[in-house]
Design goal:
The complex is a heterodimer. Chain A is an alpha+beta fold. Chain A contains twelve helices and 19 strands. Chain A has four domains: 42 residues; 123 residues, Uridine Diphospho-n-acetylenolpyruvylglucosamine Reductase, domain 3 (2-Layer Sandwich), CATH 3.30.465.10; 85 residues, Alpha-Beta Plaits; 80 residues, Alpha-Beta Plaits (2-Layer Sandwich), CATH 3.30.70. Helices cover 29% and strands 26% of the residues of chain A. In chain A, the strands form four sheets. Chain A has a nine-stranded antiparallel sheet with strand order 14-11-13-12-16-17-15-18-19. The longest helix of chain A has 15 residues. Chain A is globular. Chain B folds into four domains: 91 residues, Uridine Diphospho-n-acetylenolpyruvylglucosamine Reductase, domain 2; 116 residues, Uridine Diphospho-n-acetylenolpyruvylglucosamine Reductase, domain 3 (2-Layer Sandwich), CATH 3.30.465.10; 111 residues, Alpha-Beta Plaits, CATH 3.30.70.2190; 143 residues, Alpha-Beta Plaits. Chain B has 17 helices and 18 strands. The two termini of chain B are 28 Å apart. The chains are: A alpha+beta, B alpha+beta. Chains A and B meet through strand 8, helix 6, strand 10, helix 8 and strand 15 of A and helix 6, strand 9, helix 7, helix 8 and helix 10 of B.
């Protein structure tokens, strides 16, 4: 596992109270779950709070569409339990096979290609318990699918990178899984052509589970996943394919499932590359393309995912020294990136490029972590 | 504030906006003294009518410098008293900031000012085949700024979420007048979700001056089913069966007999007057999918043995069905001179239990309760009917409302699904959350607004104020802060 503790001190709390105790006793501390996103769990000089012993589904009520699990619970366990009831996590968590956990996924705020259909973590996280920087156990939200009471602390914890609190328990809204899914694919398009086709299908009547543009050897591949009642699936696939007006290949059954599982495990990226996530829109995808071209990096593996609302870029290990240039270029282009994976010896700056909300974040950090035990993002 | 300072403050407001846009005195300000929670009133120091974001910033800065509390107000439709003025504070009326700055069909976003009316966003998006999803019943008058502050919902939240799930980016004036940008125009973000924190903060973190909203493609078709039952429990069981079937309807609503009677008298929606429980289920989406789903839906609903079913025959018929549901609140005014609407949430599987208990509680208090609720997400809307002119009725109604909120907490739910805590439910926030939870929220509030100027007195339980449950005048009334109609 990359990204070991810098101080050598690793706590393994078995309860929220023990997390609180460890936080109170530390000067600088960073939580870690499955360790699948090392740049987010390494802070120079920090003790490590390994929450993997805080594991288990504490409540699952299929009829309520809610599931609650301790922060160190592997998402693979949660997904398997939901699948047995025909339900799933619609935000489509990343790196599940690699061992990602409930808490690490929420703290990273990273969603997979399937977030296109119904939304991301922010839309499906209902309640949280976390230990703040003073070592207090705090709960926010409610374990029901609709709630507007108090400040929305669950949303605040999405993407908080362990800097506002150590998550100990999360409740998610879940949905029924589509009865069946299949994918149509067009290979080897020019970028503009692929983007235009994505827009056409994306704004068509057919509701999509996933819509990704993948940079391949022979240009861009457009991949469209459709899910729903089996009875209607073929007609809907045909309808989407008709909008593309070109030859398509189709994936279904296990081939379809395996294909998308590999996407969220970063199977498309070289194993030693850094993987960055960048929020964007179909209107700003070309801006990222230009940034990469300017840095002589048009060849890097990358995917525009979830209807071109986010990009995943595999930054090659041999270009690791150019990360500061990338950081500057992104900032100038008003693009932001989160490093989800990085070489062990790379700088551990998790956020690159343009930032918003600094003053509000600074005040929230002051409130929840006055002594700066989690380090500062703001 | 000394009288001379108070006069200087008003002069500064007038210098900035012109005297005609600074309202003072009882008559001009009367319309601003309460909101849709009509039981409470408070007299502000001034009401200012702003025309631009720059003016909002300058007014907030003047208030911050003079330590005068302020709040933004849109159309004043808050059912929790969220836009009740702060006594002797400034009301910043946002209705003139009503421009839709941009509708972008490629990004599927709309950039709007906070005074834009909810429905106007969907109207502006319509030519592009898009719409704005959150649909509070007051959507033809309520504004996006208020929706944002209270994280408003509507009938279609289970599938597509509340206001918070549709706000992507913000320009915000913090309570000290600092202007910041939050989020962006993508559905994705990096770093803590500060947009998510700001939405639903009930005006306590400042004022949003520019809002980027997410738009959705308009569903190609709808399948709207009305099913009538001879008991409320049977309608509730039908909802459970629909959920168990794996279907995900866009909306599932239930009305009880009293609500049906009121809606029918008001708009003639064609509801069966003898039904004890009326279920509205709506599927929406693309034609093939809805066709496949509607067969399953009919099969499931028929097993629940409704004595009458009706499928909306065309868009007009669908609109009529929804008009009845959305007018239910105001229609109840026909049954009773006053009413309180609660919006607690219970786990869906405990809806039947909650409704039975609410009915018993109503009988115990000798108060009629009409029920309209978002059954799909367990969001109750008991309408507690009373006559405020009768001595003690308001207090009894408030007592019943409090018991209903406690019931929701006991059943593992929430005191509010979409109306917010506001003035009305402050006393109950501390029953839903532990001291440590409230303390964390309070610390965030104090770090952002140390002077507690932005919408002071809302959401947090006031240490000095006993619960509303106590009989006799409301403590704030005794203190001269609020008064009743």
């Amino acid at each position: 596992m990359a990204g070991g503790p810098v101080t050598g001190v690793v706590h393994q709390p078995g309860s929220a109270a023990e997390v609180a105790e460890a936080v109170r006793g530390a000067e600088l501390v960073v939580p870690r779950g499955g360790g699948t996103k090392p740049p987010l769990a390494v802070v120079d000089g920090a003790e490590v709070l390994d929450v993997s012993a805080l594991s288990g589904i504490t409540e699952y009520l299929p009829s309520e569409y809610t599931v609650t699990a301790l922060a160190g619970t592997p998402l693979a366990e949660v997904e398997a339990r939901l699948a047995a009831e025909g339900q799933y996590l619609p935000f489509d968590p990343l790196l599940v096979d690699a061992g990602s956990t409930v808490g690490g996924t929420v703290a990273a705020g990273a969603n997979g290609p399937g977030r296109l259909r119904y939304g991301g973590l922010r839309d499906f996280l209902l309640a949280v318990a976390f230990v703040d920087g003073r070592g207090e156990i705090v709960r926010g939200g409610a374990k029901v699918v609709k709630n507007a009471a108090g400040f929305d602390l669950p949303k605040l914890m999405v993407g908080s990178l362990g800097r506002l609190g150590v998550l100990t328990e999360c409740t998610f809204k879940v949905f029924p899984h589509p009865e069946s899914c299949a994918t149509v694919r067009v290979a080897g398009m020019a970028f503009d052509e692929a983007l235009e086709a994505a827009g056409r299908v994306g704004s068509g009547a057919v509701e999509l589970e996933c819509l990704d543009l993948v940079h391949g050897l022979a240009g861009w591949d457009l991949e469209i996943r459709i899910g729903g009642r089996s009875f209607a699936l073929d007609a809907r696939l045909k309808r989407a394919a008709d909008l593309l007006d070109t030859d398509v290949t189709t994936l279904s059954g296990d081939a379809d499932a395996t294909h998308w599982r590999s996407r969220r495990e970063f199977g498309w990226a070289p194993p030693d590359a850094s993987v960055l996530k960048l929020p964007l829109t179909p209107a700003t995808a070309a801006v990222l393309e230009q940034v990469l071209a300017d840095l002589d990096a048009s060849h890097v593996a990358r995917v525009y995912s979830a209807g071109v609302q986010q990009a995943f870029v595999a930054w090659p290990v041999e270009r690791a020294a150019d990360m500061p240039s990338l950081d500057r270029a992104l900032a100038q282009s008003k693009l932001t990136a989160l490093a989800l994976r990085a070489p062990a010896d790379a700088s551990n700056q998790p956020i690159l490029g343009y930032r918003t909300g600094g003053e509000l974040l600074r005040r929230v950090e002051q409130a929840l972590d006055p002594a700066g035990r989690f380090g500062r993002l703001g | 504030m000394a009288p001379a300072d108070a006069a200087d403050f008003l002069d500064a407001l007038k210098r900035r906006l012109g005297a005609d846009r600074v309202l003072t005195g009882a008559a001009p300000m009367a319309a601003y003294e309460s909101d849709a929670l009509t039981a409470f009133r408070a007299r502000p120091r001034a009401v200012v009518l702003v025309d631009s974001a720059e003016e909002v910033v300058d007014i907030v800065r003047l208030c911050a410098a003079a330590e005068v509390p302020f709040l933004a107000r849109g159309s004043g439709t808050s059912l929790s008293g969220g836009s009740l003025p702060v006594h002797d504070g400034v009301v910043i009326a946002m209705n003139r900031l009503n421009r839709i700055l941009e509708v972008d069909p490629v990004r599927r976003t709309a950039v709007v000012e906070p005074g834009v009316v909810n429905l106007a966003v969907s109207e502006a998006a319509e030519p592009y085949g898009l719409y704005y999803s959150p649909d509070p019943s007051s959507q033809s008058v309520c504004t996006i700024g208020g929706n944002l502050a209270f994280n408003s919902g509507g009938a279609h939240c289970l599938k597509y979420g509340m206001t918070s799930n549709h706000v992507l980016g913000l320009e915000v004036v913090l309570p000290d007048g600092e202007v910041i940008e939050l989020g962006g125009d993508s559905l994705e973000g990096v770093g803590p979700d500060l947009v998510g924190l700001f939405v639903g903060s009930e005006g306590l973190f400042g004022i949003a001056t520019k809002i980027t909203l997410r738009l959705l493609p308009k569903p190609e078709t709808f399948f709207t089913l009305l099913a009538a039952y001879d008991s409320l429990a049977a309608a509730g069981e039908a909802v459970a069966a629909v959920v168990a079937s794996g279907l995900l309807p866009g909306a599932m609503e239930i009305m009880d007999n009293l609500a049906i009677e009121a809606a029918e008298a008001a708009v003639g929606a064609g509801y069966p007057l003898d039904a004890e429980g009326l279920l509205i289920v709506e599927l929406e989406g693309e034609e093939q999918q809805v066709a496949a789903e509607s067969e399953l839906l009919l099969e499931v609903v028929r097993q629940s043995k409704p004595y009458l079913e009706h499928i909306a025959s065309d868009p007009d018929d669908r609109a009529r069905i929804w008009k009845g549901r959305k007018s239910a609140f105001s229609a109840v005014g026909r049954l009773s001179p006053d009413y309180i609407v609660q919006d607690g949430v219970v786990p869906r599987s405990r809806l039947g239990e909650a409704l039975t208990k609410i009915q018993h509680l109503g009988e115990e208090h000798g108060i009629r309760v009409a029920n309209v609720f978002h059954a799909g997400d367990g969001n109750l809307h008991p309408l507690i009917l009373f006559d405020g002119r009768v001595e003690g009725e308001l207090e009894r109604a408030e007592e019943l409302a409090g018991e209903i909120l406690r019931l929701c907490i006991d059943l593992g739910g929430s005191i509010t699904g979409e109306h917010g805590v506001g003035m009305e439910k402050r006393q109950y926030l501390g029953e839903m959350f532990d001291d440590a939870d409230l303390d964390a929220m309070r610390r965030i509030r104090m770090a952002i607004d140390p002077g507690e100027l932005a919408n002071r007195g809302k959401m947090f339980p006031d240490a000095e104020a006993p619960a509303l449950l106590s009989h006799g005048p409301h403590p704030l009334e005794v203190a001269g802060v609020i008064s009743r109609e």
